DNA sequence: GTATCGGATATTGGATCCAATATTCAATAT
DNA sequence: ATATTGAATATTGGATCCAATATCCGATAC
């Protein structure tokens, strides 16, 4: 029997995955602008490591489509054209609606409470840049009930690619107010066990964001 | 004006991406068994490089979910549980049906001819292990007409994860014959411009393969 | 005979060093 | 004045070397 609590320091994250997580977050939140070059040397210095783990992190980001690398030129934050962004919204609408459809029958009271708490924090949030996190948390809480890990992973990746634009759009005009209203409607459908309605509302919610983004920004990038 | 043909040797693939492509192919085709350890040193020797580009290739594979890495233990080919495989089939059915629905109205005669040629090669193929390639080529040819690159990428990734099991199942019993029949039906719907029917047939085609796999193999791995 | 401990070996993660090439900018020819 | 050439610099990709740790196997205690 174990008499001491083990701490798994051996399983602690590698330098590369720490750097990856930090860069990913910076890109997803929009702190790094589209096209911004990511210098290996500079990043290595800021993390007090060599360039090796930095390169590993950059290859991970490239696999996720968050950066583009060119030989002898380096990595830059990968921006999306309007067509690409639109396609990703369409994809999300398709997959998230289906996940929602399958999640509703499995939602426990606890899941619904957690989601409700998310919305309350969303309404009370003072920092606009925090909306994005709460938005994701709300949706993920509901989706997780589906017990479809592969779907969740794919959704997360798609979300990463467009989150910056979504966040920028959320603070504009009536973005916040509409999101709040639509979230309430989705949660209501979930609470009543109406899977089809929840799925339809989810798709509308995402496609509405797509159209709103297309209006506000003529072209997102390059 | 350019008087000489330029060859872009500078843009030639890096060692890491060559190794990645080779390992990916080996895993997807099932030449490397589930759980098989991938030793950096060994791979490096067989490609006449150092371990650095090998590690880069392994991180790419890990991002794709094709290998699992553990610190100080190394990378192994990532097998799928029955539940995971089933989920990926469901995902494919959802996404590929939608892509097909949107592709049909855009299919030119050339696309249809290319797909038809695929099927003929499929029927005439002598090497059973070549079926898998032709199967993918057939579907991809049709999907590409949709002009939805993000969707295609996601589908490709999902396909990579289950292709081994699919190939193994294809050569069993009536797998080949049924695939041939279903492909013809799909192509027929496409040729007649019946998008909804093509989409429905595509979903059935994939879910049928899912069920067939579930029958033939009690558990896929681990 | 069996279980536990300790060192040898194997293997990975990271640091440092070297090679290759893109970019920049000054010098020069037209 | 402008376009071209060539050297200096910056930056990446890969090789070699070092540190950390998991695994294996023999020695030892009971």
From TrEMBL, chains A, B:
The HTH gntR-type domain, residue ranges: 13-80
SUPFAM superfamilies referenced in this protein's UniProt entry, alphabetically: GntR ligand-binding domain-like, Winged helix' DNA-binding domain
Keywords, in A-Z order: DNA-binding, Transcription, Transcription regulation
Pfam families named among the record's database cross-references: FCD, GntR
PANTHER family xref list: TRANSCRIPTIONAL REGULATOR, GNTR FAMILY (PTHR43537), TRANSCRIPTIONAL REGULATORY PROTEIN (PTHR43537:SF41)
Protein name per UniProt: GntR family transcriptional regulator
